[in-house]
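dumping these here so i dont lose them again. two proteins, back to back, each one seq then structure tokens. dont judge the mess
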Amino acid sequence: MNKAANQRALRAVLAALASIALAGCVTKGVIVEGAKWEEVSKTGRVFGEGVVAAKDGKVYASDITPTFAIKQNNPGGTIWRYDPATGRTEKFMEPSGQSNGLHFDKNGDLLIAQMADGGGQAIVRRNMRTGTVSMVTGAFQGKRYNAPNGVTSDAQGRVYFTDPRFFGSEPMELPNSVYRVDPNGSVTELKTGLERPNGIEVSPDGRRLYVTTSNAKRYPRHPAMKPDAFGIVGGGVVAFDLDEKGNISNGKVLFQTGSENLVADGMAIDTDGNIYVAMHNGNPKQPNSDIVVLSPPGEVLARIPLPNNALSTKVGFGRGADANSLYANSALPWRLWRLKTVRRGFYLD
């Protein structure tokens, strides 16, 4: 057999192994066999984030409009609403306070994490019936948050959010951290030891808090920042035990990206507790991106990158008739994607 024939044979073997690996992901019960990503919207302007579904099945997604990208007539961020029944995308909220993470609580209200760069630097709640927006928290011990990013809640009505800084010229008054807001409004800092916490989710049984971290060196640093307590380089996912009062302990690394430039961003959880993590390198010119699916103990069940390695930033499930759909947002440019799975997303209904 000549050299060219050897190379063809090697390529055939590698292709077969890749097919076996993909089939392994499917047999582990994540993706519908033969399903492919579908681009359902490209309405947004710049940076997709915070994708989540309301009880009526409509999907909401953030569009961060940083001033480095839109220097004039910046809308201050937008939240778009996509209707799976009609395929239409419409503007829901603008300005959004540079919204990032979105989450529906047990009452059906929309929690919005507002970043810096002209944003609200706060967590706010929008009543979906009346449209009224109220403050959840805008400061800790008299100091403004850096740029709230990921937000979630538990069955007791406690709100958890991350507060890193990725861009914006506002003064950084606090180190990157994670906070809990109790139903009475009191705010507690949760000492995770993570260098730059990003995404955040509570397990379906309420006994674990998952936090991703984005430790790439390219982001702004606060003088009080300390090295990551878990030694995570690039990005990772850490699971903490969560007690009945909302306190954390026993942090354990479930996953690391393995690259100093590849960070872990937003997350979603299905009803069996599996974790869906969006990862990216933030470079649209040379994109490196992936979505990894982890079992609760941290086993990799699947890796499902977006088409053309689009920068996956946030993931979330549909609801109702669309509950088996995994949605993903991508950035630079903004896109909303959908993939059929054999799982159902977890929501506090």
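---- next one ----
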Amino acid sequence: MRILFLHTNFPAQYRHVAQALASVSNNQVVFATKNQDVSLPGVYKAIFEPSRNPHPSTHHYVRPLESAVLHGQAVYKIAEQLKAQKFIPDVICGHSGWGPTLFVKDAFPNTPLICYFEWFYHARGSDADFDPTDPLNVDDIARIRIKNAPILIDLYSCDRGLSPTFWQRAQFPPEFHSKISVLHDGVDTEYFKPQPGAKLVLPNLDLSGVDELVTYVARGMEPYRGFPQFIEAIAYIQERRPNCHVVIVGSERVCYGKCLPDGTSYKEFMLKKVPLDLWRVHFTGSLPYNQYLQVIQASSVHVYLTRPFVLSWSMIEAMSTGCLVLGSNTAPVAEVIQDGKNGLLVDFFAPQQIADRVDEVLNHPTRMAELRAKARETVLERYALADLLPKHLEMIKSIAG
């Protein structure tokens, strides 16, 4: 079987699927991507790059669409090169939204396309209007609607779609739901497993003597993932618990949502606003997987906050290690965590309540042991890679057939 993957990043959501397919000797796996840095055994990378950036004079509503078209054009050229090399895929798997999938059905009209549908944008009722202190204007509402243009083209042209959670699929127009299967990427529960008594020792950070460790993980330090609220909660936690340390994993950048207008990072802004004992707050930056694993295995309580938006892998990975996750009571989190059953839920906008529930965890380790066990149980039952990877492979094989 010949499989073509399309994603601006590599390997992203397709890591395990591409690796599994490439391990079969009579399969040919090609991955078209912009990322030149990473490689996987048996996976041939076809690097594409848009010919230019969106033009500055393009209407700002339309710039994301122009960017998608430019990415689609770049992939079309790669497709022509692959055809010249006699590579005609039996199936194409591509992430929808950034444009690589836009014209692939024109390049390979007889090849079925499976699109990964991660998010459909709404001005009202999900992430964009969630924060009452950050109201939308007319420009925002119109711009958000237009962001769906490349996704709508993919919804029409793909043969099958998948979304990782029911919440994420629910964002798509109901008339397309029958085309979209809910199938999570899966978490490697053998890798993300409990390590009883684990203490955190990283190359530049030794917290082996710490008994109370609060952790937070996100790609960026930003409002979408509740970073400002978490910093405010730390002030309450430090006031009450003099021996508690906090580890924050992530980059000093904004991945989702708006940057501050003066170019200041949210880390700088919040640390000026909220006085903290920084000797007990540790910013690690982004970490390699093995060190990130050590952080969540050693965690006393892991705080995961998000607007009603795409659910992070990190939350389910933390649960898989038997972490006690204190999550925001928002729809994507509540799909996985039941308050008091396999974790705890808290108001996204309530730093003092976050601190109260951190106290609850640290004051009642015996009661929390049951929630930790249930957290891992939830992942084993619903999100284990060992169960979900065969379903991904079966979907690909059946559609290729």
